[in-house]
Amino acid sequence: MQMTENESVRSDAKQNRARILSVARKAFVEDPEASLNFIAKAAKVGAGTLYRHFPNREALILELYRSEISEVATLASSLLHEYAAEEALRIWCDNLATLGKMKNGMARVLRAASSEEIDGIYGPLIEAVRKLLEACADSGIFRADIQPQDFLLLLGFLWQIPSTDEGQAQMARLLEVIFAGLRIK
After folding, report:
1. Residues 6 or more apart from 126 whose CB is under 8 A from it?
2. C-alpha closest to that of 23 among 9, 14, 11, 36
3. In terms of CB atoms within 10 Å, which end of the chain has fewer, N or C?
4. By three-state DSSP, how is residue 160 classified?
């Protein structure tokens, strides 16, 4: 079966969009001020192609963040099928920490975004945390009164820890302090 010209264009456009997001993800972690021209060149697309997909820096950052949040949120269900509840939550927190490092490069744009945009992005994340916490509570490990928003606020430290061996050890210690506070005594 032969593709039509429209199908080919749509396929190319999807590939370009995915490549732009992939390059932008890496670029913003390394340099929060990475230019859109740098991202376009690194993605091997013209500036016009980048701007057709993302009319400005804020649109690119919000879409990238939405995509990352969606991936981390989706991960919760698969982890709960694969691991015991507390281990699933720990692994999920590690993934959230990776997202947090990218978020630091986008902080200014995210703070400026409207609350409706941010609420729309965080909805799936809140639901993922709710599933993980309920699984921990149902298994008798954690208290049942923990609110997902409170748990995410507690995890805010993840975004401040450097990606070094010492930072990873510190993250493990701090997570253990939080988990100890959530456990049924």
Report:
1. 148, 149, 152
2. 36
3. N
4. helix
